Model the fold of this input.
Amino acid sequence: MNLKFKKPSKETQLAMSKVAIGEDNQDYHQLAEEKLANATGHHYAKLLGSGNAAILSVMNSIDGAILIPDQGAWNGFKQMAKFLNKDIITVKTDHGLIDIDGLDQSISQSSDEGIIDLDDENKRSALFLTSFAAYTAEQDIEEIGKLLHKDNILLVEDASGAIGDSEGKLANGKYSDIIIGSTGSPKIVNVEDGGFITTNDNSLFDKSNLLLKTNKASNITACGIYNELDFAEENLKETIDVCLYLKESIEEKTNFNVFHTDKRGINVIMEAEDSKSLSYKLRQEFVLDRHGMITKCPNYNRLREKAVALEIKNLDISCLSDDNLDEMIRILKKFDKQ
Done:
């Protein structure tokens, strides 16, 4: 089984190298920002040196409380909220998926306790979540946005794994007030480093102007993002299709139970009573060039369950062949009773 870690396209690598050696002196920041804003349907965009820089800049601009899922998101949300001394509200989920009724109850309770002020336009709170819960199941971004906006709360979507969604359900500025993301490896827009913010509210950038200047992306990264956006839709669709196939096949052909079998995602998470042992064995079988594609759970960034995640998102789409997928199933079947 020949598995390869995801890399930028050859076209993107060539374009970035030309900027790096001075053959191309074009300033790509504005070009990439316009392309990003067009991709999400927002009016404004900013490029930064990392996804964490994007999160920090946005969170710094939020005057109210920060809401985060109880699992299946990014642990940087909580870490940065603590660093900025923000009030934090943890929202219960169904294995990472936001439950609308539960979210509504969390908002009401926090309002009663004075943590969230639903009436003060100058102190709006925000829910930070990832497009895919644990990378394995898409959030109902439209419905979540409707509820939050009813209560004057912002929706901040980390679309690192969902930019270029052909169905328009994720990374869509119609639903999310702010869209952030990483373009580091191995994301959908994959240029080894970098991050972004898009929004319709330009005042967001004014509030974090110093952070944005300090963490501005290099022109090499801007060039990479500008070029790699052309491949985002194909990369995402192929990864989603493969994960849906694997989820169904694992359920049918092995004894493993798969989380969120019917949901679109870019990884596959299976229950495993001895997740430590299984993850070790699978790392010996699923070999990438100096990189990994196995995550052991419990893990806040994935699920707080005994489980193992197959990070299909880490794989270059060139190696997502039928033969490789069938070999993955064969290997899993070998371990499903151990």
About this structure: Residues 232-253 form the longest helix (22 residues).
